[in-house]
Design a protein that fits this description.
single chain, about 325 residues, alpha/beta, UDP-galactose 4-epimerase, domain 1, 2 domains, 7-stranded parallel sheet, 10 helices, GDP-mannose 4 6-dehydratase, GDP-mannose 4,6-dehydratase activity, nodulation
Length: about 325
């Protein structure tokens, strides 16, 4: 029997690269990673000897804003499973580049699904939306379930509302096996330094190395987040597409540990070898509007798949800080944030 093929868009990102790691270890599938030709491969450097070497891992070029590249990619791969993880994923950037964000995320998803549509109900497709679709939720509405009203608080969040609805539309209108997730905050090693917890960890690691003064610059610290480890997240995505997949279904997924961004920062500071680090607010790091309460109800997904997060918040943060320490030791870091 021919081996199954998985297609991962955004394979060079944090989630995409961890998805590769999980599938290589836990399946016998051939894995095709789709990325832009200019995307850095840092997150896949531990797999460089396997890429395009007839060892289950292949890279192919694509561009979310180029329909032809999508069609060629799908014709080349003919996937059985699709994990659509590629996006302009940073909310703050979306305030300065709203049109690019909307086109990349909404139309990019539509282009991909159009390219996949000739395959009918063959591939099982995961479209990754975001918990940001819920935006500013009043405390009395917590925890947030799947039927909570969308109230997006950034162009990025608006783009993910569109992504969510496009995915569900293709399932309903064309009978495609598309499922949508609204993943709450997830982090860990390889997290981009544009995100709060990762830029804090990076700054702490640079302080420890004597690269910058002992000051961590921050944005809004009062938002409440529920934290999950990226390694738990990719296991959830695998179960989504393999455990009785339900076309058109949509799920909230997230961790079980909630705290403010400020509490998260203080935990990272407690792990540092430098004990006199100051904290300063940088107005340039503050969003014009923020989704300030993000606490999920994940009962629907857990009941369907049996998934539970198993990696503790403390390990996630320790591993994230160690990731940046290692990056600095190996010379892979520029002190830009």
């Amino acid at each position: 029997m021919e081996k199954k093929r998985a297609l991962i868009t955004g394979v060079t990102g944090m989630v995409g690269s961890h998805m590769v790691d999980f599938l290589l270890e836990n399946t016998d599938w051939d894995i095709w990673g789709a990325c832009r030709w200019r995307s850095p491969l840092d997150n896949l450097r531990h797999l460089m000897g396997r890429i395009n070497a007839r060892d289950r891992l292949f890279l192919t070029d694509f561009e979310l804003r180029d329909t032809i590249s999508m069609i060629r990619m799908v014709e080349e791969v003919k996937p059985d499973y699709v994990f659509h993880l590629a996006a302009q994923s940073y909310p703050k950037t979306s305030f300065t580049a709203p049109l690019d964000t909307l086109d990349t995320n909404i139309m990019g998803t539509a282009r991909l699904l159009e390219a996949l549509r000739p395959l009918g109900d063959g591939p099982v497709i995961h479209v990754c939306a975001s918990s940001e679709v819920f935006g500013r939720v009043p405390a009395e509405k917590l925890p947030i379930d799947e039927e909570c009203t969308f109230h997006p608080a950034s162009p990025y969040a608006i783009s993910k509302v569109g992504t969510d609805l496009v995915g569900r539309y293709y399932a309903e209108a064309y009978g495609m096996r598309v499922m949508t997730t609204r993943m709450f905050t997830h982090t860990g090693p390889r997290r981009g330094d544009v995100f709060a917890e990762s830029t804090f960890a990076k700054q702490i690691a640079m302080i420890e190395a004597g690269i910058i003064p002992p000051v961590v610059k921050t944005g809004n610290l009062k938002s409440m987040r529920t934290w999950a480890d990226v390694r738990d997240a990719v296991r959830a995505y695998y179960l989504l597409v393999t455990k009785d997949p339900q076309p058109g279904a949509y799920y909230n997924i997230g961790g079980t540990f909630s705290c403010t961004v400020e509490d998260m920062l203080h935990h990272l500071l407690s792990l540092s070898t430098v004990k006199d680090i100051r904290v300063e607010t940088d107005p340039g790091r503050v969003r014009p509007i923020d989704a300030d309460l993000q606490v999920p109800n994940t009962a629907k997904f857990r009941a369907h798949t049996g998934w539970e997060p198993v990696i503790a918040f403390e390990k996630t943060m320790a591993d994230l800080l160690e990731y940046w320490r290692d990056a600095i030791r190996s010379g892979r870091v520029y002190p830009n944030r």
